[in-house]
Amino acid sequence: MAKNTKKNEGYLSSREIREISRKNRKITGELEKKWKRKHVPESEYLTQMKNPENAVEFEDLHTWFFTDAGTVKSVDGVTFDVPIGKTIGVVGESGCGKSVTSLSLMQLLQRPQGQIVSGHIRLNLGDKAIEISNTPREQMQKIRGNVVSMIFQEPMTSLNPVFRIGDQVDEVIALHNGEGKTKEQIKEETIKALEMVGIANSQGVYRMFPHELSGGMRQRVMIAMALACHPKVIIADEPTTALDVTIQAQILDLLRDLKDRINSSIMLITHDLGVIAEMADYVVVMYAGKIVEKGTAEDIFYHPTHPYTIGLMASKPVVGRQTDELYSIPGKVPNPVNMPDYCYFRDRCEKRLPCCDGEYPCEFSLSDTHKVSCYRCDPKYMNEAGKPDQAPDGEGGR
Q1: Quick one: 201 and 273 in the same domain?
Q2: Residue 264: is its pLDDT beyond 50?
Q3: 277 and 294 fall within a common domain
């Protein structure tokens, strides 16, 4: 039988892997030096907010992962704002860069492979603002928990199974806000935090291990840990994953109430469009590391314009509408190691135009708040595309 000499797609030889690894170590080594600096003067990471009404400003953020198979551009030029006291919903398929964007803000990327390569993340501290991409690690320790806090995905695994609930919440308060406080005072704050998230038996739960609590109770503990120091920005990464519908509603009501009580901003990351519709003031739709559409909740849910957003809206069940089969977007996401130079959604788009074969579309403004990256919204091609398509009645409503 003749030997098959055709190289399999995606196959890398040992020599190619070694060469990629060598280049990656050189790049990540240079980037790591910036994060490991000590005694850095404050002037190096101080900045000015473009709009003082924003809590966080992401501008042209690029976060990449340097792997042996190549460079994965998980976040590739993301720009959006998180206004003070508002909730921003970030929605998209698995792997589109939602969580990596939030981890970039927290500087919790898996290093040395994951790195913020370029762009800006401006964080408003009230009396001043800092540039997260220039802030050294020792300073970030004072930011995490105190100013920006995260409710991590999957409460079943986020809590340490060998420590009691009280010890884990105590540690957060002692580390970030425990200077000059006794153990009794820290415990008292922990009890208050547990009561704040609606845990009635706070004294009992304080002494329990995670396995003794239900999923909803563990999620409440995770929220208590995140809010223990009254942060200005709360990142909620899939806060209702694996919870039943009743508990989901309680958790969302709790987040909304706590946000108003401590005047925080929420960056809500989820796949669930129903959660976004209920909670978010503004919505950001991500696909393959880029933002394809953003606007107010009304813009996105009542006037979805990008074909991907329309597909997401059409794929969700609607009360009162019967269907034999839910819609699903055809095709698959392109290989993240070798992204195309045209629109990333082109090969899956059912509304493709001839101009879509060109370079990646820039952002077009449909209104002061509604922005879309699609050639169908380009005035040059409006005659060819017609009015930008929107979801049929009943598919886009909240």
Answers
A1: yes
A2: yes
A3: no
| Residues 276, 306 share a domain | no
Provide the percentage of residues in the chain whose pLDDT is more than 90. Answer: 52
| 267 and 303 belong to one structural domain | no
Mean pLDDT within 191-206:
91
CATH code (residue 152):
3.40.50.300
The number of distinct structural domains making up the chain is 2
Burial class from Cβ neighbours inside 10 Å (0-12, 13-18, 19+) for residue 93 reads middle
Residue pLDDT, tens place only, 67-102: 988 899 999 999 999 999 999 999 998 889 999 999
Q: Which domain holds residue 294?
A: 288-385
Residue 386: which pLDDT band, with cuts at 50, 70 and 90? low
Name the band, by pLDDT with cuts 50, 70 and 90, for residue 7. Answer: low
320-360 pLDDT per residue, tens: 777 778 888 999 899 888 899 899 999 999 888 888 888 99
Beta strand 233-237 with 265-270 is parallel
For residues 377 and 236, membership in a common domain is answered with no
3-state per-residue secondary structure call for the chain: CCCCCCCCCCCCCHHHHHHHHHHHHHHHHHHHHHHCCCCCCHHHCEECCCCCCEEEEEEEEEEEEEECCEEEEEEEEEEEEEECCCEEEEECCCCCCHHHHHHHHHCCCCCCCEEEEEEEEEEECCCCEEEHHHCCHHHHHHHECCCEEEECCCHHHHCCCCCCHHHHHHHHHHHHHCCCCCHHHHHHHHHHHHHHCCCCCHHHHHCCCHHHCCHHHHHHHHHHHHHCCCCCEEEEECCCCCCCHHHHHHHHHHHHHHHHHHCCEEEEEECCHHHHHHHCCEEEEEECCEEEEEEEHHHHHHCCCCHHHHHHHHCCCCCCCCCCCCCCCCCCCCCCCCCCCCCCCHHHCCCCCHHHHCCCCCCEECCCCCEECCHHHCHHHHHHHCCCCCCCCCCCCC
**Is 201 inside any structural domain?**
yes
Across-strand partners of 63? 75, 116
The predicted model scores a pTM of: 0.88
